[in-house]
Amino acid sequence: MPDDESFDLPGCLERVRQRDQAAARQLVDQLYPLVIRIVRSHLPRRVLEEDLAQEIFMKMFTRIEQFQGAVPFPHWVSRIAVTTCIDHLRAQKRRPEFRWADLSEGEADVLDAVMTNENEVSPDEAMAAHELVHKLLAQLKPEDQMVIRLLDLEQKTISEICAITGWNGSLVKVRAFRARRKLRKLFESLERKERS
After folding, report:
1. Quick check: pTM over 0.90?
2. How wide is the angle at C-alpha 60 spanned by C-alphas 54 and 64, nearest 5°?
3. What is the residue extent of each domain of the chain?
4. Candidates 3.40.50.300, 1.10.10.10, 3.40.630.30, 3.30.465.10; CATH matching 100-195
5. Which of 47-56, 116-125, 183-192 has the lowest mean pLDDT?
6. CATH of the domain spanning 9-94
7. Is 70 helix (H, G, I), strand (E, B) or coil?
8. Which residues, at least 6 apart from 127, have a Cβ–Cβ distance to it below 8 Å?
9. Mean pLDDT of 27-51
10. Torsion of CA 51, 53, 55, 60, to 10 degrees
11. pLDDT over threshold 80, residue 115
12. Could you give the CA distance from residue 38 to residue 138 in angstroms, rounded to a whole number?
């Protein structure tokens, strides 16, 4: 929380509990930098940071009677913020749909070009393709992401990957095969959604 000599946290909290709107605005103003920093570092995809910050403040105000003072108030609010972000991330894991709308205009153009087999790719399209690959990779489990990055993007050999990860060669090959199959399904899913 910013060091504001004139801000009286205990007095402000008491006024908020008495439903003082001015005190509530003052409290939000004081805590906003802390909350937005947490939101930005844990921001779930497809969630606007301002919407998430607003949800955190709503939770804070609805639970303010539960604050007992055992920990500093900013820590208590930080815990609400982190928990809210994690809840959104978990919800995305349960519904990991990757939509056409999630693509930037350049990425959508690249996907169109790939689907229509156009050979000429501009530098902007190449950058969009790079971003699209990373968005698709983000849909994989961390271990699968790593094996694809090492094997296909960094061009490491199976033995080099074994040395880096400590896995045996068979495991690396199986992980790579399954990860590529998952990427193919994600890409085909995007193609189907674009056509419909």
Report:
1. no
2. 155
3. 9-94, 100-195
4. 1.10.10.10
5. 116-125
6. 1.10.1740.10
7. coil
8. 106
9. 82
10. -170
11. no
12. 21
- Which two three-digit tokens encode residue 82? 């982190």
- Residue 141, amino acid: K
Query: Which tokens is 9 given?
Result: 């946290």
d(CA 53, CA 50): 5
Instruction: Look at the block and give the residue holding tokens 């844990």.
Output: 42
Backbone angles phi, psi at 103, to 5 degrees: -85, 145
- Residue 146: both structure tokens together: 């790593």
Please list, residue by residue across 139-175, b when 16 or more beta carbons sit within 10 angstroms of its beta carbon and e when fewer do.
bbeeebbbbbbbbeeeebebeebbeeeebeeeebeeb
The DSSP code sequence of 142-180 is HHHHHHHIIIIIS---HHHHHHHH---HHHHHHHHHHHH
